[in-house]
Amino acid sequence: MKNIRVLLCVFLYFYCVTSGHATMHEQLAVSTKAMSLGNAVTAYPPGIMSIHYNPAGLSLLENKEFSIGLLWPIKLEVTSRFYKDPDFEGFMGKNDDPVAGTSGSTGGGAMYLPFLGRKHFLAAPNIGMSYREPESKWTFGFGIYAPFGVGIRHADDDDPARFGGALVYNQRLVYAAPAVACKMTDTFSMGFSVGLGQTAEGAEVVLRAPNDIVALTDVLGEATKGLEIPVLSELTLPAPWFGGGLPTYGRLGTLSLDVHDDLDNSFNVGFLWKPAEWISFGGVYQSEAKSKLHGKYVFDYSREWQSFVNWFGSSPTTIIVAAILDLPFQAVSRQSGTVFLEEWTQPQRAQVGVMLRPFESLRLMCDLHWADWSVIKKDVFVFDQDIQILQVARLLGYPGAKNELILERNMKDTYHVSFGAEWQLTDRFCLRAGYEPRPTSVQERYFDLTLPVQSWKIYSCGAGIRLTYEISVDLALSYLKGDKIKIPNNTSKFLNSTNFTHIIYNPYAGLNYEQETEAYLALINITYKW
To answer: What's 64's domain CATH number?
Structure first.
């Protein structure tokens, strides 16, 4: 009978193997134990952080427990490479993009801390506690953790990726998660938790816009430098035209933006069923969290841009043209103020899993994850004034208003399978391993460097050490390897499209793009129970 059980466990475990789609920044810093098991823990919940993975797992805890953990990226490197497309002829005869043939890598992380603002490092703590009266069927818990987050920074001033995103971060921190679990029967438990948290996004981007229209102003500006007809030029088209023109491949300015919602909410509900000692099943539903973000922005404009705008106010004719076309004609060096992101949704998720125990010392876990990422259609940033660069972009076909920055996302629903194994060597020591493949949820047509999400394979290992009856330590090390991304020229409308109407935002028009990513994450957790 025991051999039959072992064969059945192994069959069920490998039967669950399949492919899927996921996004990179989910569940990387919630639990040390869960990460070492490939996040395959709904049927084998990871202690107090069951609050997130499956609140029903709190019913397995006894008396009082306190847990504190930390994730620290040892290495987080995104390498971007840009290549000239041999079939691309350039814009108005200009085909000397200085970005072609260059590459750059991230030089660190980025994140947003409540009350402290943007910081140039990346780390994630988790804290939790639980309480259960002896013989009670009820267990209560409370947690603080980060269910998702990513932040990268290109520190070098000449890094070509700065035009796509010199710094970007996107995160959610749950800073109050009360939870309760009830042991309904000897084999079945239910659990529920509420998450009150903060969502934050931010970016720094060096702006440029290589396309035919920008190149036309560059060509005409160069051609008319010596053109000067007394009186007539001052009344019509002062030389050089367009103030010398906008640089085809040059910097137009810089955008810095930080937005946050300091109080959004979500909930988790889960079940845990253990019909026998050798098998258990678990499931969790995690609701969406809708946020209305607000914050500050700064547009700094280059001298070339300011000359271009001032040219439209330099004669009666250009002023009339600017008024008809609704173009700015009085340049400013900076625009700053308040910006709103109308709505951002952390998608709802569902996760189900099985735990098999073919031997007393060995556990095998497999989970299926699903997330409703298709709910994210676009980001709409609304500024508190008309933005000069958006006014000009509207003339070229940009569909947004003069005070709106619209970034289409059109993400796709995601799913993936993850696997974990735990080997209990002694009463005080166990080894763990996990594997989690995560293909991206971002469509190639909408890929950009403000959301550089790619497919991942995550390999994890870890150990659980019980120092005393009261104190235990969990350790984990994860290696994340991103599949190589290749975006051929004129493939993504927010990266390298040569269509001049895709001016917002398309900084690498005419170039082929490649990206590779790898990261090492270290996690530690200490639990005290009494």
So the answer is: 2.40.160.60
